[in-house]
Design brief:
Length: 78
């Protein structure tokens, strides 16, 4: 399916046909994320915001902190 990029105020836009939106399981007012990958524009449904409590519930405890060497001091660092 082809469409044309059109001017909308100071921006440009395209109209998405209803059939395309249905195939992508999207509808009017849905929030989407735009990405450019290898010169292609990708439109994806926006990820739902998760609360801190939800994020902590998913934590599996596999993170192991470690120290790293940042080199010797070069100035008046403490």
């Amino acid at each position: 399916m082809y469409t044309t990029i059109q001017r909308w105020g100071n921006s440009q836009g395209i109209r998405l046909p209803k059939a395309i939106l249905e195939m992508a399981n999207l509808s009017e007012s849905d929030t989407v994320e735009l990405k450019v990958v290898d010169g292609k524009i990708i439109i994806e449904p926006a990820k739902e915001h998760r609360t801190l409590k939800e994020r902590i519930a998913e934590y599996k405890g596999d993170y192991q902190p470690h120290e790293w060497d940042t080199g010797t001091s070069v100035g008046k660092e403490v």
